[in-house]
Amino acid sequence: MALALQWQLQFPLPLQARPPAVAAAHRRQRPPAVAAAHRRQRRLLAPVRRVPPLRARCCASAAEAADAGKTQAAARRAYPYDEIEPRWQRHWEEHRTFRTPDIGEGLDTSKPKCYILDMFPYPSGAGLHVGHPLGYTATDILSRFKRMKGFNVLHPMGWDAFGLPAEQYAIETGTHPKITTERNIDRFRTQLKSLGFSYDWDREISTTEPCYYKWTQWIFLQLLKRGLAYQAEVPVNWCPALGTVLANEEVVDGVSERGGYPVIRKPMRQWMLRITSYADRLLEDLNDLDWPESIKEMQRNWIGRSKGAELEFAAVDKEGHDLGAKLLVYTTRPDTIFGATYLVVAPEHVLLSSLTSEEEREHVEEYKELAARKSELERTDLQKEKTGVFSGSYAKNPATGEIIPIWVADYVLGSYGTGAIMAVPAHDSRDHEFAMQYELPIIKVVSPPNGSCDPTEAYADDGIMINSCNSSSGLDINGMLSKDAAQKVIEWLESNGYGKKKVNYKLRDWLFARQRYWGEPFPVVFHDDTNEMVPLSENELPLTLPELDDFTPTGTGEPPLTKATDWVRTIDPLSKKPARRETSTMPQWAGSCWYYLRFMDPKNSNILVDKAKERYWGPVDIYVGGAEHSVLHLLYARFWHKVLYDMGLVSTKEPFKCLINQGLILGEVEYSAYRDNEGRLVSADSNSSLIDCYQEKVPADKVTKVGDHYVLKDDPNIRLNARAYKMSKSRGNVINPDDVVSEYGADSLRLYEMFMGPLRDSKTWSTGGIEGVHRFLGRTWRLIVGPPLPDGSYKDGTVTTEDEPTLDQLRVLHKCIARVTEEIHETRFNTAISAMMEFVNAAYKWETQPKSVIESFVLLLSPFAPHLAEELWFRLGHPQSLAYEQFPEAKSEYLEESKLVLPVQINGKTRGTVLVDKSCSEDDVFQIAASDEKLSKYLAGKGIRKRIYVPGRILNVILDQQKART
């Protein structure tokens, strides 16, 4: 009776949509009454509708679809994943198997912790493709492994759901972004659950929920109090069509990345965050992080710390008359001041208008307009041709007293340094190219130590100073080494009032405003009479978004929120003065800057995060995501974290201890052939030009591989172009994981994505590859459960025995345990799977399957294929989930090889080898050698004078030479 009740509680009887034969896997353990009830219900249920196979859906002809259908039917018979997976997903959800208790609610804080986090996903309407689960599967394997190793594991999931894509979709469809966002989140959540990821769904959060962005607004107020948030007039990337400011990374070739709309540069008053105040700490603390070196180097370059000098050039006219303006210049090479033959200012420089002569004004204004259409990334591209115009003004070089021209060029940015440079074309490649383009003077002032360099190119390295002396200025650095000369120039600048030593950064303050609707509102108001900015009090948070039916751009540059007039017009609660709200919203980055903290304490309505919880869980131990977030998200999150650290709200200097970047999964290889203008096929390795040829796709079934190349089956002389592309809807190469799960099961998808290759490498999807791992899971199932019965179902329980395992079986098992454990630690999941495949191959050769050995193997398999492992564990007689079972430990005594290959010499000459136990005696080794077919012919009938045996090294048999001759 107790057993029947226990079974009913774990697996209730199916109601309406229970698949056929759902109880077949558990007949051995359930009571007869329950089994009979299940059989009756199975007879009543209609057959489950089968989704057309993935391969069949991709086939070009009915015949191919039929063949694919047969292949699929065979694949589906590998094991009943379509029954197993939904059942265990329901079990995990009903029992909240992966819920992590809070401190004070049963969490044992004496145990070690491991916080494993995926980068916050954006829930798009397209849902997941098979590239997305790559990182999610990796973190799930690590999470399951750590739980079984006795760690308290925090493994949450949430949604970075504000931003431009949702707003653009709302504009296109007329659907409120809140509705589409909720729908997209529901789809993503369903897909993730279908893959069996062990997230703690009780901690789920979304940046669009007021209870979440209340604290984003609260952090902004703290930044404001500390002078780290301010407003300024800055040049921005403005997209009139999208009606918003775009980040540099959102602009490609002068158009918006989303939509391809023209983008211009124009000054706008914007909210800024003073991230530059933390530049040194952001740079220095990188050294302590367990991150890929390439990512750390990208951040170092983005911060761009450099040492140099800031110096003044007096603006003059052509005759040298002072114009009353001082042009401030930053240089990292003050030693080259004698080689400065012209100055360059950025098109957006604040003094440009006053420096432009009337004769040149039309040209300068035209150039400024052209430069405004380019992004900063385009302007600083080293490969692009340098362009510029003369301003009509000049400057006096303080070191030489020479009058040098002032030019305007877009390769100088107003946002870097002072927005002006002294150009030294002999020793800077950009300046050299510009000088050659416009026939400007080039004066060499640094000689290489060995005295030789290419006179047609700029020499940019250190050396010995030449042509660097002026008696009028009193500066002489001739013959000095570059570094010494630079220091002397700085001292000269400071003593004469021309400049000073300066540390500069490429990093700019963070432009923190967007002219969009779908984002976090700023918690500030502006007084109508004085335009004074007043922050809201903290008890007024959250300031929620108003409901708007029209999200379209205003066309004036004003944000869409200006249309919510009743919301915009307000009263300052403190002074009671009429006021208006800020109508820009925060960027999408805002909510993702601190979400990892909210997962530690997601329901707290009183404070950002409880200190005790943060001290226990922080920092994130393993953070997995794409390398495309290497600079912006990671740099912004580090900045916010350091501010919170300074406030005493977090206990660590850095938010993410270890960072792992997973590679891309590319679409299946596409084959294409070349045809000339007359339609004739041209081989891809043809000596003739392929520029005038056009390409056409070739179906995979018409392609064969010869050596390292792909050719047409019908004409092997025609080599094809074979390439895999990033998955995208436009290419039509997106693989929906729902289809893969339907055809092969979630465990097969998980296993294949890990088996494709190293986690950090890019990999190419292959449907044939997933069939291989699916067969492996089927072999594992049959090894433990046995072959299917005539009706396609499987016997109850398993085929394991209670026999004591042999020494050989224990060695095979513990070798597998050791390898899998090590490979999980090192995130080499593909080789861990290979080790388990080797175990299954070995186990198929055993006469019996000892239960104790098989149980350990099932536990090894569980982080990778959790549904199958749970089912096998239950069939092995364990009523509880294996999620918190102890992960097997490899025992050293079973890892040592018991046999070795021993060389055998006859009269000092090696004649062969024998396989012997390490513990073999000399007599035993000799008997084995004498019985060996190859060695016996040297020993038969021969007299033996002596034997020399070195255990584990060699056996040397010395024959009696006299008897040997007879």
Automatic annotation (TrEMBL):
It comes from Urochloa decumbens. PANTHER family: LEUCINE--TRNA LIGASE, MITOCHONDRIAL (PTHR43740:SF2), LEUCYL-TRNA SYNTHETASE (PTHR43740). It comes from the Eukaryota. One of its GO terms (molecular function) is leucine-tRNA ligase activity. Residues 810-919 form the Methionyl/Valyl/Leucyl/Isoleucyl-tRNA synthetase anticodon-binding domain. Residues 506-666, 723-754 form the Aminoacyl-tRNA synthetase class Ia domain. This is leucine--tRNA ligase. Residues 300-494 form the Leucyl-tRNA synthetase editing domain. Residues 120-251 form the Methionyl/Leucyl tRNA synthetase domain.
